[in-house]
Amino acid sequence: MGKRILKTFTNNLGFKLLAVAFAFILWLVVYNLNDPIKTKTFTATVSISGTDSVVDMGKWPEIKDSDKTISFSVSGKRSILQDMDDSDFYASADLSNIKLDEDDSSKAYAKIDIGCSKHKTSITFNGGDRYLEFSVEDYMQKQFEVKVSVNGNVSGDHALGNSPQANPRVVKIGGPKSIVGTIATASATINVDDNTIITDNQISDRGDLVLLDENGDEVDMSKLNVDSQYQSIEVTVDVLNTKKVPVKCEYQGTPSGGKGVLGVDTSIDSVYIKGSAEALNNITSLDIGPIDINGASEDIETTVDLTGYLPEGVSLVDSSDASVDVVVRIESNATANMTLNSSDISYTGLADGQKLTFGVDKTAVVVSGNESDIDRIKDSTLKGTIDVSGLSAGQHTVVVKLDLDDSKFTWGEIKIAVTITDEGQTGGTGATDTVTSETKNSSESTDDPTRNTDTTGTVKTDNTDNTKNDNTDSTNDPDSQTDKKNQESDGSNSADSSRTTDTSDN
């Protein structure tokens, strides 16, 4: 039985093998007709690596997003291709192996490697090697000190310090020269309000790094090489105490012409300052100046920067208060028309046995000085003194010295006529205006009044000749002499148009 079966399989073995082969071929044909080889296009995004290698070459690659997307075709059975989509493929380019264009140094190439996550043995990539084409330019790296700022403020008796700190204080920015070269500043800003947490008299927060060009426009950081540690900056600012203090201005020197200072006006009466509690405790006012007014004839106007007068560690709460306008008001000149009565003139140097008679009973005087000083003395009585030492009997013209402060007032030279007679002479018996030496001594002890100035230097006097004639007539009249003696015995003095002093009565 077994032999029969074996013989059956081995009979015509060649034909049988041929039949099997033919059947297999037929099957393949049929199969391929139902699942043919097809070609399909897929898309992938190229991932970039090796940028540092380009930087080491002193170049910076600029790859557009559109250049990172590539399309490629794949061949395979229809059933396989139908089972695949774009997500099954990946592409990468390693820039460490870039090639610079021999004709254009601004262009470079990098080979793109394409792979597949499934059916990798069942498909074929068409088209050969693919390359990523991109631009390159010179690489630049610069350091920038971070400028920090704070938006907002804290309320109450506190204020923010003027010097917030950045951490890190300096950042390194690298990238294409065309962009890095435009960067002017690096900055970071934080916001504060009444809800901001204050710890140990400080506020700390983080702010995003912002790069600005010379026009203040923001620079796109996505095109630059910025280390992650520089992406945000820690900003710390001190919280200080505040205090309101008055602004006082001092001056030095003396105005011209004996003028005085009426006052000092400032555009700001007081300011708020900030600092530590210890620093503020020692400040009761902000004293500026001194303003030099030496020789000034009119108001002095100037502008003062308050920051120059603040002690270390103290600053203004509002920086707009730094500039203060100062006006030192100088007095204007004024004059007063005053009268000097002869009865208010004392004298010295009259010899024993001599008598003195004034030629006029009053003299007009123009006094000049500061307006405030003139107002003080214009309604007062002028007093003066003369010195007749060494003068013999006869008529003389003497200079009157006013009892005024010549550092405050000026006046013209005052001259007055006097007549001196010896005892026993006809002219010595006098008129009703006889004054004894006791009266002279009394007049010499008179308190000094304030003094008046004349801008013109003009002195007006009455006619001395008339006085002289009147005195002569009175001395020649026996009745007049008798009346005078009676008046002297009663201790009375009469003020007439002339005044006579008789030293013999002593």
Structure description:
The protein has 506 residues and is of the alpha+beta class. The chain folds into 5 domains: 2-33; 37-128; 139-240, Beta Complex (RNA Polymerase Alpha Subunit, Chain A, domain 2), CATH 2.170.120; 241-332, YbbR-like domain (RNA Polymerase Alpha Subunit, Chain A, domain 2, Beta Complex); 334-505, RNA Polymerase Alpha Subunit, Chain A, domain 2 (Beta Complex). The protein is built from 10 helices and 33 strands. The strands form 6 sheets. Strands 1, 2, 3, 4, 5, 6, 7, 8, 11, 12, 14 and 15 form a 12-stranded mixed beta sheet that branches. Strands 9, 10, 13, 16, 18, 19 and 21 form a 7-stranded mixed beta sheet that branches. Mean pLDDT is 80; it is low at 427-506.
What can be said about this structure in brief?
The protein is an alpha+beta fold and 506 residues long.
Q: What characteristic shape results from the CA principal axes? A: rod-shaped
Radius of gyration, Cα only, in angstroms? Answer: 58 Å
Total strands: 33
Structural class category:
alpha+beta
Name given to the CATH architecture of the largest domain = Beta Complex
Spans where pLDDT lies below 50 across 5 or more residues: 427-506
- Termini distance? 200 Å
Strand content: 35-45%
Query: Briefly, what CATH class of the largest domain?
Result: Mainly Beta
> How many domains, as an integer?
5
The helix content is 10-25%
CATH topology of the largest domain: RNA Polymerase Alpha Subunit, Chain A, domain 2
Q: What is the mean pLDDT?
A: 80
